[in-house]
Amino acid sequence: MAGTSLKKSESLKLYSVLKVRVRETLLESRERIEREKLLAYWNTGKLINDHVRLNNGRADYAQKILLKLERDIGIDATVLRRTAQFQAAFPIRAHRRELTWTHYRALLPVKDEAERNRLAERAEHEHWDSTELRKRIRKMRYENGRLPAGIADPLVQPKAGTPGLYRIVKSGEFFAIDLGFASYVELLKNESRGLRDGAIVKWNGRTKPVLLKDAEASDLYAYPAELIRVVDGDTLWMKITLAGSLWIKEKLRLRGIDAPELSTPEGVAAKRFIISVLNQSRSITITTTKPDKWDRYLSDVFLEMPKASPSGGTDGEVIYLNNHLLENGYAIRYDRVHLEDWDREW
């Protein structure tokens, strides 16, 4: 016994042996963890689908149950919905050893069962990572100039506001400028003359605000910004200029998309891609949306690119970052937000 241990210890002195054993240990563990994750999601989906079926299978009931589960056990209703879709789309427990949850998430929007299974088989046999799979699905978007049945259009409709425009709000006897992000500047009485609650003004942070008659609500909540740090493929820390010298630090989630988890190779690739594009940009403008009660800000990000940048284009070209990630296969369309995206501090 002691001799066997000694032999193992001596062989481990060799780097070639270390490399093989570490690779085997890590890969086996990852495969086992991913397999357990898939089974857990499939079984969760089966529980939900069976419960809904036993209650007459009504869509409105299913939605209520998902929201109730979200409230009672703290798991996002969208994640629960995906497990139900996963189990329904792949009735036999996910048996393809090389496909991960990220692969199956990419496959779920493909409504045609035969096409979905064909893609799954090709992804496994040809060893596609989830980014490659999403690219293949995206290529299927148009047939004869039309969007094919079962493939959702993955592009986001941009929300591009105008920096320097703000809404006026009533503050007691006075008016205040709503800068966004729950920040306000109260106006002096002489500065408020001619203004009304809800009016939109142009303001540079120093002079009297100028009333704009033709501006619309869609012009609001747009700001110049500077990158502080990339968290992952769809989450950024930004320094945001509210007005003049007033600025805040805020974590933003890119609206309408979802990049792979950072714990996956695809997630690492998405983060590298977004860092590269942001580092090339000449300036950044963001528009924000606050869709829910948790103070989570979604953002449309627009990048002015320099001449002859590696991303292509001409001097002054503006890249809409949200769709740029979709078009290059680093994200999928997703219109809700994972609660855990706001759990990590920078």
Structural write-up:
- The protein is built from 9 helices and 13 strands.
- It is α+β, with helices and mostly antiparallel strands and 346 residues long.
- It has 3 domains: 14-139, no CATH class; 165-219, no CATH class; 222-342, OB fold (Dihydrolipoamide Acetyltransferase, E2P), CATH 2.40.50.
- β2 and β3 form a beta hairpin.
- α2 (15-54) packs across α4 (77-89) and α3 crosses α4 (77-89).
- It is globular, with a radius of gyration of 25 Å.
- Cα(first) to Cα(last) distance is 50 Å
Give the total of beta strands: 13
Largest sheet: 5 strands, antiparallel
Strand content: 15-25%
> Judging from the principal axes of the Cα atoms, what is the shape?
globular
Number of individual domains: 3
Order of helices and strands: HHHHHHHEEEEEEEEEHEEEHE
**Strand arrangement, major sheet:** 3-2-1-4-5
Oligomer: single chain
Average pLDDT metric = 81
Secondary structure class reads alpha+beta
Helix content class: 25-40%
Radius of gyration, rounded? 25 Å
Uncertain spans: 142-153, 338-346
Structure annotation, total helices: 9
Short description:
The protein is an alpha+beta fold and 346 residues long. It is built from nine helices and 13 strands.
Protein topology:
Elements: H1 2-11, H2 15-54, H3 59-73, H4 77-89, H5 101-107, H6 113-125, H7 130-139, E1 165-171, E2 174-180, E3 183-186, E4 200-202, E5 210-212, E6 222-232, E7 235-243, E8 246-254, E9 257-258, H8 265-280, E10 283-289, E11 298-304, E12 318-320, H9 321-327, E13 332-333
Parallel strand pairs: 8-11
Antiparallel strand pairs: 1-2, 1-4, 2-3, 4-5, 6-7, 6-10, 7-8, 9-13, 10-11, 11-12
